[in-house]
Write a structure and sequence with these properties.
Blueprint lengths: L8 H14 L3 H5 L13 E2 L3 E4 L8 E5 L8 H6 L4 H5 L6 H4 L10 E4 L33 H4 L22 H30 L2 E9 L8 E2 L2 E2 L2 E4 L8 H13 L4 E3 L7 H6 L6 E9 L4 E2 L4 E2 L3 H25 L3 H6 L1
Parallel strand pairs: 3-4, 3-5, 5-10, 8-9
Antiparallel strand pairs: 1-2, 2-4, 6-7, 8-10, 11-12
Helix pairs in contact: 1-7, 8-10
């Protein structure tokens, strides 16, 4: 999409409509990937995303790490008042490593390469805080939500420790650039992977992988221990119950403490793409960072290796469950494709 030469209302409205269209492929609403295929995309765009594919795709599973990116664009570094370590406190650091067993399970792994603090792909495309901007926002922007109030909209106002990111107001053109050139390509890649699973299997299970600060669950206890894992399917809306049940059983068998949908039920990706009625299921997984990293120094710990092994086992188990469900359920998308 070409850059806009003006920052007037017409340009903002056009940009907003275009970005909204980019994250609403026809097959999601029509249930027909044959008539509404997601366009082909490259497997990598430098600084934006990377798709790691298995030698042979044998599973309707798709795995994504939307918040582990750590390539910090110069325009962010020039605009921020924070040091790099503070900026990185918002990362789901090393999650792309935690999830790298996806390929062994026969599934692709999509990783965002840019940081969450730059633009958050797990938000609506224009979930923006008007107080952050020097000019008006387009009419279609969402400007009032719990996430915005917390400073964590599509463009974050604060990092994990609530420190303000910027020492000045941004322009809408800056937000538009991030949404157009980073957010939208990531979602196009995700849509393409979902479409490929639907084309091949008539079914898709997306596992959206995240990490959570230990402080977020320090006082949320299970079995007298802090929570290790939070599984989210928006309270049963975005995936068949069999998937969250299989994941919970898997973790409990390995002595992790697990909760469902609290305090994280699923973000924008889970809500937007989870359409079990057309064969697209989404399960969000949040992993306590204290299990595998030094949260203050943002360095991996020895716990990373066993966690990777366990998550690889989980992805294999979910892959098997997804294959069986794809074989036994009459998926509307498969019927349309045939």
């Amino acid at each position: 999409m070409p850059a806009h030469d003006t920052n007037g209302p017409a340009a903002r409205d056009t940009a907003g409509a275009a970005a909204a269209a980019l994250i609403e492929p026809g097959f999601l609403s029509a249930g027909d990937v044959a008539l509404h295929p997601a366009p082909a995309v490259p497997d990598e765009i430098a600084g934006v995303y990377r798709i790691a594919r298995p030698a042979h795709c044998t599973s309707p599973l798709v795995v994504a790490s939307p918040h582990s990116g750590r390539i910090y664009p110069k325009d962010l570094l020039d605009a921020t008042r924070l040091g790099l370590l503070d900026l990185r406190s918002s990362e789901d650091s090393f999650m792309e490593q935690v999830l790298e067993g996806a390929n062994d399970a026969g599934a692709p792994l999509l990783t965002a390469l840019f940081p969450r603090v730059y633009v958050d792909v797990n938000r609506e495309p224009f979930e923006l805080d008007p107080a952050m901007f020097s000019d008006p926002l387009p009419d279609e922007a969402t400007t009032d939500s719990i996430r915005i109030s917390a400073g964590l909209g599509t463009i974050a106002r604060v990092v994990a420790n609530s420190e303000p990111v910027y020492g000045r107001k941004l322009t809408f053109r800056e937000a538009e650039h991030r949404i157009r050139d980073f957010y939208a390509p990531y979602h196009r890649a995700l849509q393409r992977l979902i479409a490929e699973a639907l084309e091949q299997f008539g079914f898709c299970l997306l596992v959206d992988g995240h990490s959570m600060p230990s402080s977020a669950v320090r006082h949320v206890r299970s079995e007298r221990r802090p929570i290790d894992i939070v599984l989210g399917d928006c309270h049963g809306v975005t995936a068949a119950a069999a998937f969250i049940e299989r994941a919970e059983d898997f973790f409990r068998e390995r002595h992790y403490t697990v909760r469902r949908n609290s305090p994280y039920a699923g973000g924008f990706v889970t809500r937007h793409y989870g359409r079990p009625g057309i064969g697209v299921h989404v399960l969000q997984i949040e992993i306590n960072r204290a299990l595998y990293m030094d949260e203050r120094r943002i360095e991996p710990l020895s716990g990373l290796t066993p966690l990777k092994r366990d998550i690889a086992g989980l992805l294999s188990a979910l892959s098997d469950s997804a294959r069986r469900m794809a074989e036994t359920e009459a998926a509307p998308v498969r019927a349309a494709a045939e």
